[in-house]
Amino acid sequence: MPRIWVFCRRTKLRGIPLAIALAARRGNAAQAHIAAEPKCSGFTLLEMLVVLALLALMTGLVAPWSSGWLMGARERGLESDLRAYLEAMPIRAFHAGEARQVEAEELLSAISDRSGHVILKLDKPLRYAANGFAEGGKIEIIRGARRDVWLVEAVSGQVREAP
């Protein structure tokens, strides 16, 4: 139903059905009192400020937790990308039909760590033969205070955490 908008006494905008407003203009007494005094309902400024303060309080409580959760999710994603890249290297070497050698810089560029907070150290370059066999090696992953060591198994190229 179409509505027209009028201001009531407390300067709040209220929609009134068009039929009622037209009846009030025509002088229909039964419906004119409805259009003459629209009921004002809404929120006061104090109520709105209380709601905003509660939202700010809830945001202040949740924001530190969620930022830590996001950082953890980002780190798990980087680990997953690195593991997948390493485990696919024997297959890549086999399909290319040529031996491959992987340095720490190539691994960092493969996981696309833009923050620069991940440091990779290899005991020796990781080598993969043309037939897909891995030579094996050790990878040290340093992220701030956290340090993980992974082992790349010889022959299969599978990655596992060091005991």
Automatic annotation (TrEMBL):
<dbReference type="InterPro" id="IPR012902">
    <property type="entry name" value="N_methyl_site"/>
</dbReference>
<keyword id="KW-0472">Membrane</keyword>
<dbReference type="Pfam" id="PF07963">
    <property type="entry name" value="N_methyl"/>
</dbReference>
<feature type="transmembrane region" description="Helical">
    <location>
        <begin position="48"/>
        <end position="70"/>
    </location>
</feature>
<keyword id="KW-1133">Transmembrane helix</keyword>
<keyword id="KW-0812">Transmembrane</keyword>
<dbReference type="InterPro" id="IPR045584">
    <property type="entry name" value="Pilin-like"/>
</dbReference>
<protein>
    <submittedName>
        <fullName>Prepilin-type N-terminal cleavage/methylation domain-containing protein</fullName>
    </submittedName>
</protein>
